[in-house]
UniProtKB/TrEMBL annotation:
Belongs to the phosphohexose mutase family. Keywords: Isomerase, Magnesium, Metal-binding, Phosphoprotein. The keyword Methyltransferase does not apply. This is Phospho-sugar mutase. GO terms for molecular function: isomerase activity. Residues 44-182, 205-305, 317-436 form the Alpha-D-phosphohexomutase alpha/beta/alpha domain. InterPro entries: A-D-PHexomutase_a/b/a-I, A-D-PHexomutase_a/b/a-I/II/III, A-D-PHexomutase_a/b/a-II, A-D-PHexomutase_a/b/a-III, A-D-PHexomutase_C_sf, A-D-PHexomutase_CS, Alpha-D-phosphohexomutase_SF. PROSITE patterns: PGM_PMM (PS00710). Its EC number is 5.4.2.-. Its cofactor is Mg(2+). It comes from the Bacteria. It is an enzyme of class 5 (isomerase).
Length: 569
C-alpha cells in the first residue's frame, strides 16, 4: 500500500490541476480502497488499445494518462520518421468527455510540432481508419470505449495503413511511454497545427462505403429495414449510405438516434446483447420489416436480426453473419472470375465454418488472434494477395481493405444487399444461412463471459487460466480431448501421442481444446474488459434444409450439457 500511496502523492505536485489534486487528497483521507484501485497499476494496451474507467489516477482514463500516451507516441513518430512533416488524424465517439479528451490529445500532438486533423464532431471508427490513408497520415487516434458501460472511455492507435498498431510497434511505443514522467507531457498546443475536418472526408468515406458494399441487389424497393445507432456514431453515416445505395424503406429508431454517452434506453450499447435491439425488433414486428440492424457506439460492431422460419425476428450471432457475408462476397468474386490469390480471414475463437467455406471455394482462410488489428496486418503482410472479406465472432466484419478495422457501416449495407437479394429470389437471409449449413456443415457456437472486477477479479482470472493449463480438461460431453493449443507458449499438444508442435501465431493468453468429435472450447481473458471468456463450437451434418429445426435442437442440447458439465451454465 505504501507504493500505491507514494504514486498517488506524486500527483499532488503543481504540474497537476487543482481539481485533480483535490480529488486525490480526498481519496487519501476517506477512501483507501478506491485510491488503491485507481493507482495500483498503469492502464495497458490490450487487443483494442487502451480502455478503462474515466477518472483520476494511473489506472484511469484522464487527460494525464492519455497525454502521456500521446507524448510517447509523438516521440516515437519523430524517431520513426525523422525527416518528414508528421500528420495525424483524430476522431471521437459519443462518450462523456470524448470531445474534450480528443482536443487534449490534439493539443499534445500540436505542442510537439505535429499536424493534426481533428474531426469537428463525433465520427465512426471505420471513418477514422479510412481517414488515416485518405489524408496520408502517419497515425490516427480514436477516442472510444466501444460497447463498454458509460463510465468507460478509451484510446486506439492506428498506423499508416489504417490498421491498429501491432508488434513490434506497440511494444516500442509502450517503451517510449514508460520512459516518460507525467511532467514530460507538452500540453501547450500550437493551434495553427490543428485543422478541423468533416464534409470532405465524410463524402469520401460514404462514397467508398457505397462502392464497396453495394452489389446492385434486386428487390431494394421491397426490402424493409429498421436501423438503430444505439445513441452512437453510426447515425452520421449509415442512413446516408443506405439511401445512396437505393434503400428507401429505412425506419430509424428516433429515441436511440441522438448521440448520448449515458445510453439511456439500453442496459448496454452492445449489439451482442439481445436486449440492446429490443426497441428496434419491436418496431420491426410492428411494421413488418425484413431486417433489424444495430451498431455499437463507435460503429465497428453490428448486430443483425432477421425473420426466422416462423416469421419472427431473431438476432443472429457474429459467426452466422460473418459466414453468410463472406459467402456472398466469394460468390461475387467468383462471378467476376477468381484470380487464385484471394483470401478470407477469421480469428482463432471464431467459427471453424470459415475454413470450411474457404476450402469449398478454393481460397485461403488466414486465421489470426482475436482483434481486427491482426486481420489488417495480414493485408499489409501479403500485398500480392487479394483480401475478399472476413470477421470475428464478436459481431465485427470487414468488406475489402479500404477500411482496416471492423466496419459496421459498409457491413450494414452488405447485410441489406444479401437480405434484399434473397427476398427477391424467394428466399431470405435466414434461409440462405441454413443452405450454408447444408453445403458446408452445421456449426453452432456459444460464448460465455464471466465478469471479475478489480484486483481480486484479475487474480481470479489469472488463476483460472493457470488451472486450465496445468489441469487440462480430459473430455467434453464424452468426447476425448485430442489437442490442446496453448497460444501463450505457441505450442499444440497431441494429447493422444504426447507430440508437441509449434503454432506460428504471435503469443497470446489463449487456450483451445479440440475433441475427437470436433467440439472446440477456448478460454481467453478479455483484453479490454475485466472478463474471462469461454468460446464453444460444435457441429453436425445437415443433410437437407427441412431437418434444420431437429438438428438445431440437438446441438442446443449438446451445448447445454457441456455448460453444465463445466459449471458454466
Amino acid at each position: 500500500m505504501d507504493s500505491i500511496l507514494n504514486t498517488a502523492k506524486s500527483w499532488l505536485t503543481d504540474f497537476f490541476d487543482a481539481d485533480t489534486k483535490k480529488e486525490i487528497e480526498n481519496l487519501i483521507q476517506t477512501n483507501t480502497e478506491e485510491l488503491k484501485d485507481r493507482f495500483y497499476k498503469d492502464l495497458e494496451f490490450g487487443t483494442g488499445g487502451m480502455r478503462g474507467v474515466m477518472g483520476v489516477g494511473t489506472n484511469r482514463i484522464n487527460k494525464y494518462t492519455l497525454g502521456k500516451n500521446t507524448q510517447g507516441l509523438s516521440n516515437y513518430l519523430k524517431k520513426t520518421y525523422p525527416n518528414e512533416a508528421l500528420k495525424v488524424v483524430i476522431a471521437y465517439d459519443c462518450r462523456h468527455n470524448s470531445d474534450t479528451l480528443a482536443k487534449t490529445v490534439a493539443d499534445v500532438f500540436a505542442a510537439n510540432g505535429i499536424k493534426v486533423f481533428l474531426f469537428s464532431e463525433l465520427r465512426t471508427t471505420p471513418a477514422l481508419s479510412f481517414a488515416v490513408k485518405y489524408l496520408n497520415c502517419h497515425a490516427g487516434i480514436v477516442l472510444t470505449a466501444s460497447h463498454n458501460p458509460p463510465e468507460y472511455n478509451g484510446y486506439k492507435v492506428y498506423w499508416t495503413d489504417g490498421g491498429q498498431i501491432v508488434p513490434p510497434q506497440d511494444g516500442e511505443i509502450i517503451s517510449e511511454i514508460n520512459n516518460l514522467s507525467f511532467e514530460d507531457i507538452k500540453f501547450k498546443a500550437d493551434e495553427s497545427l490543428i485543422q478541423l475536418i468533416d464534409k470532405e472526408v465524410d463524402e469520401a468515406f460514404i462514397s467508398a462505403s457505397v462502392k464497396n458494399g453495394n452489389f446492385n441487389a434486386k428487390g431494394k424497393d421491397d426490402f424493409k429495414i429498421v436501423f438503430t445507432s444505439l445513441h452512437g456514431t453510426s447515425i452520421t453515416a449509415i442512413p446516408e449510405v443506405l439511401k445512396r445505395a437505393g434503400y428507401k424503406n429505412v425506419t430509424i429508431i428516433e429515441e436511440q438516434a441522438v448521440p448520448d454517452g449515458n445510453f439511456p434506453t439500453v442496459k448496454s450499447p452492445n449489439p451482442e446483447e439481445p436486449e440492446a435491439l429490443n426497441m428496434a425488433i419491436e418496431k420491426a414486428e410492428e411494421i413488418g420489416a425484413d431486417m433489424v440492424v444495430g451498431t455499437d457506439p463507435d460503429s465497428d460492431r453490428l448486430g443483425i436480426a432477421v425473420r426466422n422460419l416462423e416469421g419472427k425476428m431473431e438476432l443472429l450471432n457474429g459467426n452466422q453473419t460473418m459466414v453468410l457475408m463472406t459467402k456472398f462476397l466469394l460468390d461475387q468474386r467468383k462471378a467476376q472470375g477468381m484470380e487464385g490469390n484471394e483470401f478470407i480471414a477469421s480469428t482463432i475463437v471464431s467459427t471453424p465454418m470459415m475454413p470450411a467455406l474457404a476450402d469449398a471455394y478454393g481460397v485461403e482462410c488466414k486465421t489470426a488472434l482475436t482483434g481486427f488489428k491482426w486481420i489488417a496486418k495480414m493485408i499489409k503482410d501479403f500485398p500480392n494477395q487479394h483480401f475478399v472479406g472476413g470477421g470475428e465472432e464478436s459481431f465485427g466484419f470487414m468488406v475489402g481493405d479500404f477500411v482496416r478495422d471492423k466496419d459496421a457501416v459498409t457491413s450494414t449495407l452488405l447485410a441489406c444487399e444479401i437480405g434484399a437479394n434473397a427476398k427477391a429470389n424467394g428466399s431470405s437471409f435466414y434461409k440462405d444461412l441454413i443452405d450454408c449449413y447444408v453445403d458446408f456443415g452445421f456449426y453452432k457456437e456459444k460464448l460465455v463471459s464471466m465478469t471479475k472486477k478489480g484486483i481480486t477479479g484479475a487474480q481470479e482470472i489469472k488463476q483460472m487460466m493457470i488451472d486450465y493449463k496445468n489441469n487440462p480438461v480430459q473430455s467434453i460431453d464424452g468426447s476425448k480431448v485430442i489437442f490442446v493449443d496453448d497460444y501463450n507458449t505457441s505450442t499444440k499438444k497431441n494429447m493422444v501421442t504426447g507430440e508437441t508442435t509449434s503454432i506460428d501465431i504471435p503469443k497470446s493468453n489463449v487456450l483451445i481444446y479440440t475433441t475427437e468429435d470436433g467440439t472446440i472450447m477456448a478460454a481467453r481473458p478479455s483484453g479490454t474488459e475485466p472478463k474471462i471468456k469461454f468460446y464453444f463450437s460444435i457441429n453436425a451434418t445437415l443433410d437437407k434444409a427441412s431437418d434444420f429445426k431437429k438438428v438445431d435442437a440437438q446441438l442446443d442440447e449438446k451445448i447445454n450439457r457441456i455448460l453444465k458439465e463445466l459449471n458454466l451454465n
